[in-house]
Amino acid sequence: MKKGDHLFLVDGSGYIFRAYHALPPLTRKSDGLPVSAVLGFCNMVWKLTQDARNTDVGVVPTHFAVIFDYSSKTFRNDLYPEYKANRSAPPEDLIPQFGLIRQATKAFNLPCIEMEGFEADDLIATYCRLACDAGGDTTIISSDKDLMQLVGATVGMYDPMKDRQIGVPEVVEKWGVPPEKMIDLQALTGDSVDNVPGVPGIGPKTAAQLLEQFGDLDGLLTRAGEIKQEKRRESIIANADKARISRELVTLKNDVPVIEGLDDFTLHEPDGPKLIGFLKTMEFSSLTRRVAEATGTEPADVQAVAVTIERADTAHGPDVGFGVPAAAESAVGAVTDEAGGSTAAGREPREGDTPSLLSALRFEDATARKIDTSAYVCIRDTAVLKAWIAEAMEAGIVAFDTETTSTDPMQAELIGFSMATAPGRAAYVPLAHKSGNGDLLGGGVVENQIPIREALGVLKPLLEDKSVLKIVQELKYDLVVMSRHGIDVAPFDDTMLISYVLDAGTSGGHGMAALSEKWLGHSTIPLKELAGSGRSFVGFDQVDIDKATAYAAEHADVTLRLWRVLKPRLAAKGLVSVYERLERPLVPVLARMEQRGISVDRQILSRLSGELAQGAARLEDEIYQLIGERINIGSPKQLGDILFGRMGLPGGSKTKTGQWSTSAQLLEDLAAEGHELPRKIVDWRQLTKLKSTYTDALPGFVHPNTKRVHTSYALAATTTGRLSSSDPNLQNIPVRTIEGRKIRTAFIADKGNKLVSADYSQIELRVLAHVAEIPQLTQAFADGADIHAITASEMFNVPVEGMPAEIRRRAKAINFGIIYGISAFGLANQLSIPREEAGAYIKKYFERFPGIRDYIDATKAYAREYGYVETIFGRRIHYPEIRSSNPSVRAFNERASINARLQGTAADIIRRAMVRMDDALEKAKLSARMLLQVHDELVFETAEAEVEATIPVVRHVMENAAMPAVSMSVPLHVDARAANNWEEAH
DNA sequence: ACAGAAGCTTA
DNA sequence: GTAAGCTTCTGTT
């Protein structure tokens, strides 16, 4: 190699992963072999090796090599055993492509370089240095930040997937430091993917700023005491060693004893027949054609060649990591603490044990017996199933779980079920597992499974038996699935809901995996180990029955053990009535609502979608006219660059990632100053939002059989006790703008029916008036007065009559502010007034309503003392961070806890109404059915003739929902209306 | 494929 | 200033 020569080094391993995820899936037609990354690789290499005019790099390579990782074990593992330890196995359909890409490289007549003990990056670094020594230039084909330290006068990078050159300026722009400081920057930031530790709390922005200030890592570490920010200083001093080891890990080795020299990399003309042989084997027809043309080869004369296809267990490529999940020791501490230390040590529970003692004993019991997933029974015979069911009947208690093909219970097909009668004693009953590898003729039902009708016939009496308690995790799902098979499961307990009642607001969710870790110290088998994930995901019916047995029976076993630990805790904490009145009975109510669904008129949506598309297209044209370029308007990044960079509009704030903010608020302000463009962008966003989120998405949720839309309500998703709705979310259907409201006209009643919408008026303010005992507000609600006007009148001494709209608007904002845990900052933002003015309003408000200030102070003090707040029905919401030393974290938790009492109480009230509603309607012999809940609103469908009789019943149940548990000092008021669609009923 | 940011919809 | 979920874009594995 000599001066003027140009070496191309392709980061083969890096490319494989990126291509795999970036490119659409592609399989070889003849046999389904996954080849998308192989095709991407071949296209790229072909382009790069052709004449410079055909490439995007703009230079002609004289030397060319493709570099791979040999395996994930390298000298870095000796430096730091955890290095890359949390890498997971590559996706199954990528594995055969590792070998194929190496074979592709050889077919291109290119050197295929890898070396045991070194990463591809080290080899690249070494060849860069060799080329530089010889006076040549190098282009690294990669976009990996780990390679950016090599960039310099003779070394550049090129990202083939984004067609982007990466030189010194690009590195500085992206990372804030020149390439030679990348090593120090990475040493500070670390890399969670490769398990490079770095310094906790230091990200790229901070690292760049520190390196600017102190020159380099050594300078920073020696003078760390000079850093002003306390946390940052302490973290850097405490983690200096981690930074040093990180620097070693990220520093690429440029003196690897390589075997091939640069002269071996001299680029030759491609060998047409050899390359075409490989491409034909891969069935890449269009690339075959192009290569044939360029090399003057006749493809028909070339035979496809044999390739080696590696199986998952023999493939090179990144090894599976050894990351072992940390044991959940916290749970041990939690329980024994509450049980009073060691009093619970290893004895049998006795009659008369206190609930907390019992819970601790059960906890010990549950964790002492280790979970052995290989010890479960697979039931494939009706007689055996009957014996298990008899055992469950005898026990009076059984944990139960279903296995299906979908997370949507309305679409799910039942594949099997599992049950547990005692810890460790669990079984799985396969019903509809299929065999075959998914080819067209395969997919036959596996033999020796109990016929589904027969099994369910045996199971039904158990699930419906009043004397047998069924324990289920996330009960609602199974309730819907079993209800579709004509089984009404009762009575029941739901471990997810018990956890939610006990621990809403504490870290960690209430799903089975999290609860098992937390309470049993046991990691459950992840579904993806059985069924894969992403593109390789298969339905549960394709899962091997032995594996399914371990997985499914484990669920029943874990559920039962969780119940034994958690259920006594309810009593220990005085939360039984919350669970029994607000949570458990709502499950079948919601299950029925979800199963009913609501009718949606697809024609209306389709017409609206067309109108929105037209409107958006017109605005798009006008926007392109104004900016003189066709950018992606949906990209805030591009938009910000054009608006505030090139066009020089007065840009406001930047977001936390340093981008220009293009929020609607900011664009509205610009529009108000007379700029034409921002208005159009805001309008365009509204139209495209309505189209993509609603008119285009909703029809996809119409169920093929019922022709209705079935949302899914989550009972344990919010901290405050509200429900949430998803797939689709029917709790955020537009209502504020006229364009948005049109979407509601598509939600319709079936023929002969009406929709009835009933909503609580100002429920959270009424709750506030009640709990804070504010006489003026209580009186105003009793009088049925305009609450915001009364507030304004009290504050500003103006009569309600003839009050200017602006005055009332401000009082309204303050009222809402109180519910949200008011701050001067927030109120100022909302009203677009200076913070001082907002502060003065709040002061004035508290002077007139001192009871509210007392209420807020009392709530904060309570939350700080106990770590939680309670609704008036006793629901607990935890705020573990309320004592944080960070003032903004603390303030946030204070606001949230103030809001939680109000929002949570309102949520409890509507829950109580929902639990009673079906009974009340039945007693009144009405056909009305509850369909939707939107926090303070219930939507029903009812026979047209019964509308007049239905509304008073609904109103009565809702308005008296707090009774008799709580007699509120403020009346609840419900507005209700009937119409053919949701827009008119609301 | 997935995660995070930005933005927008609701109560 | 509270509580959610969904879509698009962007960057990364």
UniProtKB/TrEMBL annotation:
Exonuclease domain span: 396-572
Complexes and interactors: Single-chain monomer with multiple functions.
All residue ranges annotated as the 5'-3' exonuclease domain in the record: 5-268
Gene transcribed to yield this protein: polA
Its EC number(s): 2.7.7.7
Pfam families, A to Z: 5_3_exonuc (PF01367), 5_3_exonuc_N (PF02739), DNA_pol_A (PF00476), DNA_pol_A_exo1 (PF01612)
Record-linked SMART domains: 35EXOc, 53EXOc, EXOIII, HhH2, POLAc
InterPro entries: 3'-5'_exonuclease_dom, 5-3_exonucl_a-hlix_arch_N, 5-3_exonuclease, 5-3_exonuclease_C_sf, DNA-dir_DNA_pol_A_CS, DNA-dir_DNA_pol_A_palm_dom, DNA/RNA_pol_sf, DNA_polI_H3TH
Catalytic activity: DNA(n) + a 2'-deoxyribonucleoside 5'-triphosphate = DNA(n+1) + diphosphate
Domain DNA-directed DNA polymerase family A palm: 740-946
Keywords: DNA damage, DNA repair, DNA replication, DNA-binding, DNA-directed DNA polymerase, Exonuclease, Hydrolase, Nuclease, Nucleotidyltransferase, Transferase
Protein purpose: In addition to polymerase activity, this DNA polymerase exhibits 3'-5' and 5'-3' exonuclease activity.
CDD domains the record matches: DNA_pol_A_pol_I_C, DNA_polA_I_Ecoli_like_exo, H3TH_53EXO, PIN_53EXO
Organism in which the protein naturally occurs: Mesorhizobium tianshanense
UniProt protein name: DNA polymerase I
